[in-house]
């Protein structure tokens, strides 16, 4: 007997299928039919779990929030030294982008901000929280002497985020024409030379 999957598992499958569609074809190609085909489900099954694309957009924003910002908060709350926390956050974020090329396509899409204010606001709030988390880790690094005195935590956090976002944007626009992980190693080493 085939065991029926739980609603939570089905919703995760639908979100991953939506990410696959966005990663291959962009946000404009995201239709219920495209998600259903990617997930190997019927359109009706998608509607059984989500009321429509707006709810899927919100679920995608929640996924990104948990995968990027939530993970950063968990790392920041740990007991490792601040610089090690920053490095772990940086490379886990880059790995997530490499594993899910749809993330930058979704986050940077004008269609999201013009078409779904709820999901856009969700992303904006979580990005603000991410910046605050990073600023807290950087402030701890300064006070513990791991990072150079005189750098500003908030502005350094924004530089850190910009380093990831611009690299993700270049990688996305260039259709993954360079190894984002190798680029990340060079950027991290350069960042260290600026802040240590």
CATH topology: Tetracycline Repressor, domain 2
CATH class: Mainly Alpha
The portion of residues assigned to helices is over 70%
Shape: elongated
Tell me, rounded to a whole number, the average pLDDT: 91
- Major sheet characteristics: none
When the domains are counted, the total is 1
First-residue to last-residue Cα separation: 60 Å
CATH superfamily: Tetracycline Repressor, domain 2
Order of helices and strands: HHHHHHHHHH
How many E-type strands?
0
How would you describe what is shown here?
By secondary structure, the chain is mainly alpha-helical. It has a single domain (57-195), classed as Tetracycline Repressor, domain 2 (Orthogonal Bundle), CATH 1.10.357. It has helices spanning 7-25, 32-39, 43-49, 53-76, 82-99, 102-107, 110-115, 117-143, 153-173, 180-195.
In brief, what are we looking at here?
By secondary structure, this protein is mostly helical.
What's the structural blueprint in terms of helices and strands?
Blueprint: H1 7-25, H2 32-39, H3 43-49, H4 53-76, H5 82-99, H6 102-107, H7 110-115, H8 117-143, H9 153-173, H10 180-195
Helix pairs in contact: 1-2, 1-4, 2-3, 4-5, 4-8, 5-8, 5-10, 8-9, 9-10
């Amino acid at each position: 007997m085939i065991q029926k999957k739980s609603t939570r598992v089905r919703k995760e499958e639908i979100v991953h299928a939506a990410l696959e569609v966005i990663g291959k074809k962009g946000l404009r190609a995201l239709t219920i039919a495209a998600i259903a085909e990617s997930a190997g489900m019927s359109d009706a099954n998608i509607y059984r779990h989500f009321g429509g694309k707006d709810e899927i957009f919100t679920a995608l924003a929640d996924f990104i929030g948990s995968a990027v910002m939530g993970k950063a908060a968990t790392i920041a709350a740990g007991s490792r030294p601040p610089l090690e926390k920053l490095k772990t956050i940086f490379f886990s974020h880059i790995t997530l982008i490499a594993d899910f090329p749809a993330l930058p396509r979704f986050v940077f899409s004008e269609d999201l901000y013009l078409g779904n204010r709820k999901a856009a606001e969700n992303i904006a709030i979580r990005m603000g929280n991410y910046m605050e988390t990073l600023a807290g880790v950087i402030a701890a690094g300064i006070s513990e002497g791991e990072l150079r005195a005189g750098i500003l935590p908030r502005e350094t956090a924004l530089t850190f985020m910009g380093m990831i976002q611009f690299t993700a944007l270049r990688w996305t626009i260039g259709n993954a024409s360079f190894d984002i992980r190798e680029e990340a190693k060079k950027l991290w080493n350069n960042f260290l030379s600026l802040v240590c």
